[in-house]
Amino acid sequence: xxxxxxxxxxxxxxxxxDQASFESYFQTMPWLAVPYGDPTIKExxxxxxxxxxxxxVILGPDGKTVTKQGRNLINLYQxxxxxxxxxxxxxxxxxxxxxxxxxxxxAFHSGHHHELNLVSLGPFICCVCDEQGxxxxxxxxxxxxxxxxxxxxxxxxxxxx
Length: 161
Prior knowledge:
Elements: E1 11-12, H1 19-26, E2 32-33, H2 40-47, E3 58-59, E4 65-67, H3 70-77, H4 86-100, E5 106-108, E6 115-125, E7 132-139, E8 146-147
Parallel strand pairs: 1-2
Antiparallel strand pairs: 3-4, 5-6, 6-7, 7-8
Protein name: protein-disulfide reductase
Catalytic activity: [protein]-dithiol + NAD(+) = [protein]-disulfide + NADH + H(+); [protein]-dithiol + NADP(+) = [protein]-disulfide + NADPH + H(+)
EC number: 1.8.1.8
């Protein structure tokens, strides 16, 4: 996003239960915030139909809602989701699908004893490198083990004789 040099603003709207929690959390943030306890907070939550936290609502320069799924999009595509337009998201999805065409549909991995299947999923933590991943992963359908495609160390399937 830094390369784009596009101007945008982040405003923290807290639903913390007390002032101390708000201040503790807010001091870690470099952006603006609606003051703790401001009645606008409830109005904004209702207006944007916020049902869970954390949430990220993306507004355009005209103040209109671009998406209420900002958090999910950031988790899935990281900074590449910007500017959150339908065209941008369709492009990212096509790119991810194109990358997956060259991946095997299943694999056996040296760090796990079950077969791993290529799946498309939201954010996950890779069991090999402990870094967050998104979209395509190899997952064990028996125990939920998940790994980035780049972290799979292929081995031959176990001999079932």
